[in-house]
Amino acid sequence: LTVTGKISSIRDVVISGNTTYFIRLEGNENCYEIKAADDKDVIFVKVGDEIELTLASDTGDYIPASNLEVK
After folding, report:
1. For the segment 10-29, what is each residue's pLDDT rounded down to a tens digit?
2. Rounded distance between C-alpha atoms, residue 44 and residue 46, angstroms
3. How far apart are CA 40 and CA 69, in angstroms?
4. Were both Cys, which of 36, 38, 54, 68 would link to 19 (CB 3.0–4.6 Å)?
5. Are 7 and 45 in contact (CB under 8 A)?
6. Is residue 21 exposed (0-12), middle (13-18) or buried (19+ Cβ within 10 Å)?
7. Contact assessment for residue 71 and residue 54, using Cβ atoms and an 8 Å cutoff
């Protein structure tokens, strides 16, 4: 299960010592969550980058992702 789009916003927060990024894509109401420990590429992305996220599921307030690829 994947989703592709351009980043409209990205925020990071440290939870229990782990940096977690929350990403929204243009034209998409969902908020995706990925930990830096799961994919270090997330550290380098910014608003406007086109990405593909591999999702662990597609439901919930914060949809967990396990992999990020810059397109």
Report:
1. 999 999 999 999 999 999 99
2. 7
3. 10
4. 36
5. yes
6. buried
7. no
Neighbour count for residue 62 (Cβ, 10 Å): 12
**Would you state the structure tokens that stand for residue 18, as one six-digit string?**
């782990």
Decide: 20 and 43 in contact? Cβ < 8 Å.
no
16 contacts: CB under 8 Å, gap ≥ 6: none
Does this model's pTM top 0.70?
A: yes
Which tokens belong to 34? Answer: 């990925």
Q: Which helix (H) or strand (E) holds 19?
A: strand 18-25
User: pLDDT of 27-55, one tens digit each?
Assistant: 999 999 999 999 999 999 999 999 999 99
Residue with tokens 């351009």: 6
